[in-house]
Amino acid sequence: MRILLFRHAPAERRDEGLWPDDLARPLTTRGIQRARRSSRSIVRLEPGITHVFSSGAERADATASELVRAAGGELNVEVLSALAPGGSWREVLRVLARHEEASVIVLVGHEPDLGKLAGALLFGAPTSLPLKKAGAAAIDVESPAAGVGRLRWWWSPGSLRALAKKKRSRT
Predict the structure, then answer these.
(1) If DSSP codes are grouped into helix, strand and coil, which group holds residue 7?
(2) How far is CA 168 from the centre of its chain?
(3) 3-class state of residue 33 by DSSP
(4) Model-level pTM?
(5) pLDDT tens-digit readout, 35-66
(6) Which residues are 52's β-sheet partners?
Protein backbone atom coordinates (compact mmCIF):
# COMPACT_ATOMS: atom_id res chain seq x y z
CA MET A 1 0.00 0.00 0.00
CA ARG A 2 1.16 3.51 -0.76
CA ILE A 3 -0.02 6.29 1.56
CA LEU A 4 0.06 9.81 0.15
CA LEU A 5 0.04 12.65 2.64
CA PHE A 6 -1.22 15.85 0.99
CA ARG A 7 -1.39 19.05 3.02
CA HIS A 8 -4.21 21.41 2.13
CA ALA A 9 -3.34 24.40 -0.06
CA PRO A 10 -3.16 28.00 1.27
CA ALA A 11 -6.35 29.07 3.04
CA GLU A 12 -7.83 32.40 4.03
CA ARG A 13 -6.43 33.95 7.19
CA ARG A 14 -8.08 33.08 10.46
CA ASP A 15 -10.95 35.48 11.14
CA GLU A 16 -13.56 34.59 13.75
CA GLY A 17 -15.87 37.25 12.31
CA LEU A 18 -15.94 35.54 8.90
CA TRP A 19 -15.41 31.95 9.99
CA PRO A 20 -16.37 31.39 13.65
CA ASP A 21 -15.67 27.71 13.04
CA ASP A 22 -12.11 27.43 11.76
CA LEU A 23 -13.04 24.25 9.90
CA ALA A 24 -15.16 26.43 7.55
CA ARG A 25 -12.18 28.53 6.45
CA PRO A 26 -11.82 28.18 2.63
CA LEU A 27 -8.86 28.18 0.27
CA THR A 28 -7.70 31.47 -1.17
CA THR A 29 -7.85 31.98 -4.94
CA ARG A 30 -4.11 31.31 -5.00
CA GLY A 31 -4.70 28.25 -2.84
CA ILE A 32 -7.17 26.82 -5.36
CA GLN A 33 -4.60 27.28 -8.13
CA ARG A 34 -1.87 25.65 -6.05
CA ALA A 35 -4.14 22.76 -5.09
CA ARG A 36 -4.96 22.24 -8.76
CA ARG A 37 -1.32 22.23 -9.89
CA SER A 38 -0.11 20.04 -7.04
CA SER A 39 -2.99 17.64 -7.68
CA ARG A 40 -2.09 17.29 -11.35
CA SER A 41 1.46 16.39 -10.39
CA ILE A 42 0.38 13.94 -7.71
CA VAL A 43 -1.88 12.14 -10.18
CA ARG A 44 0.97 12.11 -12.68
CA LEU A 45 3.29 10.57 -10.08
CA GLU A 46 0.63 8.19 -8.71
CA PRO A 47 -1.98 7.34 -11.37
CA GLY A 48 -3.40 4.40 -9.37
CA ILE A 49 -5.14 6.31 -6.56
CA THR A 50 -7.97 4.20 -5.12
CA HIS A 51 -9.12 6.13 -2.02
CA VAL A 52 -9.13 9.78 -0.92
CA PHE A 53 -9.75 10.82 2.69
CA SER A 54 -10.08 14.40 3.91
CA SER A 55 -10.26 15.96 7.36
CA GLY A 56 -13.66 17.51 6.72
CA ALA A 57 -12.31 21.05 6.98
CA GLU A 58 -13.40 23.18 4.01
CA ARG A 59 -9.78 23.89 2.96
CA ALA A 60 -8.88 20.19 3.02
CA ASP A 61 -12.09 19.16 1.24
CA ALA A 62 -11.46 21.72 -1.52
CA THR A 63 -7.89 20.45 -1.93
CA ALA A 64 -9.18 16.86 -2.07
CA SER A 65 -11.76 17.89 -4.68
CA GLU A 66 -9.01 19.28 -6.91
CA LEU A 67 -7.19 15.96 -6.58
CA VAL A 68 -10.31 14.00 -7.55
CA ARG A 69 -10.85 16.32 -10.54
CA ALA A 70 -7.22 15.81 -11.64
CA ALA A 71 -7.71 12.03 -11.34
CA GLY A 72 -10.68 12.12 -13.70
CA GLY A 73 -13.53 12.62 -11.23
CA GLU A 74 -14.21 8.92 -10.58
CA LEU A 75 -13.11 8.88 -6.92
CA ASN A 76 -15.13 9.82 -3.85
CA VAL A 77 -13.75 11.85 -0.97
CA GLU A 78 -14.46 10.30 2.42
CA VAL A 79 -14.28 12.40 5.58
CA LEU A 80 -11.97 10.97 8.21
CA SER A 81 -12.35 13.00 11.41
CA ALA A 82 -9.01 11.71 12.72
CA LEU A 83 -7.38 13.87 10.02
CA ALA A 84 -8.92 17.06 11.50
CA PRO A 85 -6.56 19.44 13.31
CA GLY A 86 -5.48 17.76 16.54
CA GLY A 87 -6.68 14.35 15.32
CA SER A 88 -5.17 11.02 16.28
CA TRP A 89 -2.51 9.47 14.05
CA ARG A 90 -3.22 6.14 15.77
CA GLU A 91 -6.86 6.33 14.66
CA VAL A 92 -5.73 7.13 11.11
CA LEU A 93 -3.62 3.94 11.15
CA ARG A 94 -6.62 1.93 12.39
CA VAL A 95 -8.75 3.23 9.51
CA LEU A 96 -5.98 2.52 7.00
CA ALA A 97 -5.74 -1.04 8.30
CA ARG A 98 -9.38 -1.53 7.26
CA HIS A 99 -8.37 -0.58 3.69
CA GLU A 100 -5.33 -2.80 3.23
CA GLU A 101 -6.62 -3.93 -0.18
CA ALA A 102 -6.14 -0.37 -1.50
CA SER A 103 -3.07 0.28 -3.57
CA VAL A 104 -2.81 4.08 -3.20
CA ILE A 105 -4.61 6.09 -0.50
CA VAL A 106 -4.45 9.89 -0.28
CA LEU A 107 -4.89 11.59 3.09
CA VAL A 108 -5.61 15.33 2.83
CA GLY A 109 -5.08 17.12 6.11
CA HIS A 110 -3.17 19.61 8.22
CA GLU A 111 0.09 20.30 9.97
CA PRO A 112 1.48 19.34 12.36
CA ASP A 113 -0.71 16.24 12.25
CA LEU A 114 0.35 14.93 8.81
CA GLY A 115 4.00 15.41 9.76
CA LYS A 116 3.45 13.42 12.95
CA LEU A 117 1.73 10.67 10.96
CA ALA A 118 4.71 10.56 8.58
CA GLY A 119 7.08 10.29 11.54
CA ALA A 120 4.99 7.52 13.08
CA LEU A 121 4.89 5.53 9.83
CA LEU A 122 8.60 5.95 9.13
CA PHE A 123 10.17 5.95 12.61
CA GLY A 124 7.57 4.47 14.94
CA ALA A 125 7.03 7.73 16.85
CA PRO A 126 5.18 10.91 15.92
CA THR A 127 8.34 12.84 15.13
CA SER A 128 7.20 15.72 12.97
CA LEU A 129 8.29 15.77 9.33
CA PRO A 130 6.43 18.86 8.18
CA LEU A 131 4.72 19.33 4.84
CA LYS A 132 4.31 22.76 3.33
CA LYS A 133 0.86 23.86 2.14
CA ALA A 134 0.01 21.99 -1.10
CA GLY A 135 3.05 19.75 -0.57
CA ALA A 136 2.87 15.97 -0.50
CA ALA A 137 4.76 12.81 0.43
CA ALA A 138 4.38 9.13 -0.41
CA ILE A 139 5.14 6.36 2.06
CA ASP A 140 5.04 2.66 1.19
CA VAL A 141 3.87 0.14 3.78
CA GLU A 142 3.00 -3.54 3.58
CA SER A 143 0.51 -3.05 6.39
CA PRO A 144 -0.20 0.34 8.00
CA ALA A 145 1.54 0.39 11.35
CA ALA A 146 4.03 2.54 13.22
CA GLY A 147 7.63 2.23 12.10
CA VAL A 148 7.12 0.10 8.99
CA GLY A 149 7.01 2.75 6.26
CA ARG A 150 9.51 3.48 3.52
CA LEU A 151 9.66 6.98 2.09
CA ARG A 152 8.93 6.86 -1.64
CA TRP A 153 8.99 10.59 -2.34
CA TRP A 154 8.57 13.96 -0.57
CA TRP A 155 7.78 16.94 -2.81
CA SER A 156 7.54 20.59 -1.93
CA PRO A 157 4.66 22.59 -3.42
CA GLY A 158 7.10 24.44 -5.68
CA SER A 159 8.48 21.18 -7.05
CA LEU A 160 4.97 19.82 -7.61
CA ARG A 161 3.98 23.02 -9.44
CA ALA A 162 7.11 22.80 -11.62
CA LEU A 163 6.29 19.20 -12.47
CA ALA A 164 2.73 20.19 -13.41
CA LYS A 165 4.12 22.73 -15.90
CA LYS A 166 6.34 20.18 -17.66
CA LYS A 167 4.84 18.51 -20.68
CA ARG A 168 4.59 14.78 -20.50
CA SER A 169 7.36 13.14 -22.45
CA ARG A 170 6.32 10.48 -24.92
CA THR A 171 7.81 7.07 -24.40
Answers:
(1) strand
(2) 23
(3) helix
(4) 0.94
(5) 999 999 999 999 999 999 999 999 999 999 99
(6) 77, 106
